UniProtKB/TrEMBL annotation, chains A, B:
Cofactor(s) listed in the protein's UniProt record: Zn(2+)
Domain of life according to the entry: Bacteria
Family annotation (PANTHER family): ALLANTOATE AMIDOHYDROLASE, ALLANTOATE DEIMINASE-RELATED
Stored InterPro entries: Amidase_Cbmase (IPR010158), Bact_exopeptidase_dim_dom (IPR036264), Peptidase_M20 (IPR002933), Peptidase_M20_dimer (IPR011650)
Gene Ontology molecular function, alphabetical: hydrolase activity, acting on carbon-nitrogen (but not peptide) bonds, in linear amidines; metal ion binding
The protein's name: N-carbamoyl-L-amino-acid hydrolase
Keywords on record: Hydrolase, Metal-binding, Zinc
Amino acid sequence: MLKINAERLWQSLMEMAKVGATTKGGVRRLALTSEDAAGRALFAAWCRDAGLTLSVDRVGNLFARRAGSETGAAAVASGSHLDTQPEGGRFDGVYGVLATLEVVRTLNDAGIVTRKPIEIAVWTNEEGARFTPAMLGSAAFTGVMPLETALAAHDADGVTVDDALHASGYQGERAVPGEPFDAYFEAHIEQGPVLEEAGVPVGVVTGGQAIRWLDVRVTGRAAHAGTTPMQYRKDALFGSAEMASELEAIAADFFPQGLATIGEWHIHNASRNTIAGELMFTVDLRNPSDAAIDEMEASVRTRFEATAARRGLTIDITQHWVSPSTPFDPACIEAVQSAVNELGYVNQRIVSGAGHDAIHLAKHCPTAMIFIPCVDGLSHNEAEDALPEDVARGADVLLHAMLARAGRA
Amino acid sequence: MLKINAERLWQSLMEMAKVGATTKGGVRRLALTSEDAAGRALFAAWCRDAGLTLSVDRVGNLFARRAGSETGAAAVASGSHLDTQPEGGRFDGVYGVLATLEVVRTLNDAGIVTRKPIEIAVWTNEEGARFTPAMLGSAAFTGVMPLETALAAHDADGVTVDDALHASGYQGERAVPGEPFDAYFEAHIEQGPVLEEAGVPVGVVTGGQAIRWLDVRVTGRAAHAGTTPMQYRKDALFGSAEMASELEAIAADFFPQGLATIGEWHIHNASRNTIAGELMFTVDLRNPSDAAIDEMEASVRTRFEATAARRGLTIDITQHWVSPSTPFDPACIEAVQSAVNELGYVNQRIVSGAGHDAIHLAKHCPTAMIFIPCVDGLSHNEAEDALPEDVARGADVLLHAMLARAGRA
């Protein structure tokens, strides 16, 4: 059975990791900086060597096309991003781009012509580390975000995406939103511990989970820690601590699908010897099921409000962000599943916990993803790593899923 | 039975409240500023009118002396402070100073000569709002803090106490540490809700409680809120929340004497969608008994460490500050109790929750305090208030306690 050239793929990954390399073994290639432009230039050179045709759209998304035999057929696309976190790793994003390049090179080596064209996509500003929000390029491409909004987004220095596109030479002509692809695949490191802990090298990703962000404000009464007897206190901190434990219990009620996190926690006018009068904390809820995340939020509200009332505290719970679940396309999932079955790789179904360009693409065209394990589940970290054999297996799966979708001429 | 002139005392309090008055009805008279100097000048003028002899020591503590009939006898002293919080009230500190002035005026009116002299003490920088630490003047007077250290303390602009004493004209000659008084009394608003809630107008203060400040650092593992299953998490926040609830339970075990507060809580690199990897929080423990506060701290350590171990977290608990309990002098407490009994005022024993100059004085000479209720237990607030009848009753008690100690000639 046809397989990609594992050594060539690994060498490409290591070569790309030199662009913006940090002293600690990571990569810093912030979106549309000179480092990002250098990474794109290296990728573009490899694409030209592979005989691909390059184009750039209005938000700088870069496409490399391998022609198919059928005139006018929509492309089977795959890719990810080349930008990184400020202290990022060598695999997040770049793996999906270079795995697709390796798919093309493998088809070239084997002399295979596909019916539908194949396109490699490099999405602009996926990380959101320079420009907010994350996944900006794919949001504009899929019409999730108006082009004007995307171009007006600015970094901490006030430089807009539009400015940065001109400065980096990536202000392209291709229309945004773009024409839907025949299908979109994306290979990515898992960025979590599930596959590694299970000893499974390939994850067949069935979609993205629902996310709900809540802001919780708890108000009691600030008072002197030394002069206020316990029975007269309205302590916003002890009340919030009880709510945090309730949130943990709610996650247990929805185990293993439900996730709950408190990431921020601010006491207003905090002082060591003052009882907290007002406290704000965030809640991050995740669940693959929209119905289940509704239940989780309802449970949070019921339990938190009861606790506040019992303690004489007032509470205000507001939705900060609501993102519904994103099921991937059954036919694309099946193409991935068939490929992995034929290759005989141990695999499991998995839901994407993080955001990816594929989550936007799924609203635009049939989409699926392939995950490979990352060492210690670590990502967004200079120590991010993946095993060469896992890197190769994921690209093999991508090759056969794309080939099945594109069809041999 | 002899009583103070309630109307005159109230008028003096309201007159002093005009010096540094804020638009919200409070007072801003930071230590050794022009406002503080103006307050001291007004007080000094009243003292001269009352025939008292003024002196100032090396840290600006101001004393006003009424002679006694016995040559060489140590003075029976009483006072407090005239400096305030940045948004302070009309009673905190100033009440103890002007109540003592009213005692002297009442003795003058009644033509009473005491055997021992009487001194009114105005302590420098009690609040700690301008110079750290609080109770600086009384600390230097009692030898708790070296004079050089006190003079070198500086405010946020780098101005030292020594500079400010010269600028305000309060660099005096009287030696520091000072000669011990025969006894020291201090009348003060309670700064808590106990007396008001109990409907008791006078508190006979038996001492200051022990205070212990702990720093707790909990370390887990920062990870992505979307990609990390609950069972793989080492969440420093959920662990700390459980510890907070344990702390609340420990306070309940030591109810009503034990107090416990978490005033600060900082997540390292906090982000809404990141599991807390490291968290620092403070613990403030109080108890009138040194043995009991030892037990409280031991219980904190045992329970927190067990919780951390069960959750796979590491924990580090360090003592930030240890202040033992300060029992007041039995004879001085009895002088206050006898006075209040003779006056027939409803009263109760109470432990001081806050710091006061009297806590330092207690290490230097026989000491006791008198508390009166403050409205809603509120202090360090522009809305701080006290009822005129309570203000008068506290001064009546002070009068008779001091008179008993000083003796009629």
